[in-house]
């Protein structure tokens, strides 16, 4: 099977499993989405949504985040991992938005990555979900699934994974691909205890087949 045909098959199967895959970070506008994605680094979307439920009521604009001392903002997000660094990034980001972008989240990817705490992945999420620009953001789930299914090599870095996905997937499907791979990794092909016995893509997953063989051998020895 050619690489593009294999990718199309994978996306078709995952699409059938998760037809409603979408961004699970709660937000009302591009600014809130940017803050939520910044907070989500090394943290679950579920925890971020719990924190932002109150955070987004207290702070609605960049000026709001700058109107309080840094330690107050830290306390508001202290349930989030790395909350001190993230609070600092948020205030610096808000200052830059006011000074350079009229208080609005910029539409261009290159401008987004200038913002403190906003890397390539965050920028991809924002442009695709807030502004409708096709993009593939490679988070831990997308990276894991891509490598397990042989789309990328085990030693590929995040950028290499992104480039390979962009090459194999039609541009108009980039955003959907991002969401589908995340859902597949988050709810099915988990880091720990992936659902290999019921996985429709097991034949494409070397790690999954090895895991199944090890389990079978373990049971055989036990008997």
TrEMBL record:
Cofactor mode of binding and number, as noted: Binds 1 [4Fe-4S] cluster.
Keyword Transport attributed: no
The protein's Enzyme Commission number: 4.2.99.18
Name of the molecule in the record: Endonuclease III
InterPro entries in alphabetical order: DNA_glycosylase (IPR011257), Endonuclease-III-like_CS2 (IPR004036), Endonuclease3_FeS-loop_motif (IPR003651), HhH-GPD_domain (IPR003265), HhH_base_excis_C (IPR023170), HhH_motif (IPR000445), Nth (IPR005759)
Record-listed [4Fe-4S] cluster binding positions: 189, 196, 199, 205
Cofactor (UniProt): [4Fe-4S] cluster
Similarity comment: family membership: Belongs to the Nth/MutY family.
Keywords: 4Fe-4S, DNA damage, DNA repair, DNA-binding, Endonuclease, Glycosidase, Hydrolase, Iron, Iron-sulfur, Lyase, Metal-binding, Nuclease
Signal peptide: none
Species per Swiss-Prot/TrEMBL record: Paenibacillus nasutitermitis
Biological processes, Gene Ontology terms: base-excision repair, AP site formation
Known function: DNA repair enzyme that has both DNA N-glycosylase activity and AP-lyase activity. The DNA N-glycosylase activity releases various damaged pyrimidines from DNA by cleaving the N-glycosidic bond, leaving an AP (apurinic/apyrimidinic) site. The AP-lyase activity cleaves the phosphodiester bond 3' to the AP site by a beta-elimination, leaving a 3'-terminal unsaturated sugar and a product with a terminal 5'-phosphate.
GO molecular function: 4 iron, 4 sulfur cluster binding; class I DNA-(apurinic or apyrimidinic site) endonuclease activity; DNA binding; DNA N-glycosylase activity; metal ion binding
Catalytic activity line of the entry: 2'-deoxyribonucleotide-(2'-deoxyribose 5'-phosphate)-2'-deoxyribonucleotide-DNA = a 3'-end 2'-deoxyribonucleotide-(2,3-dehydro-2,3-deoxyribose 5'-phosphate)-DNA + a 5'-end 5'-phospho-2'-deoxyribonucleoside-DNA + H(+)
HhH-GPD domain location: 39-187
Enzyme superclass (EC): lyase
Lineage, broadest ranks: Bacteria, Bacillati, Bacillota, Bacilli, Bacillales
HAMAP family reported in the protein's UniProt record: Nth
Keyword Ligase attached: no
Pfam families: EndIII_4Fe-2S (PF10576), HHH (PF00633), HhH-GPD (PF00730)
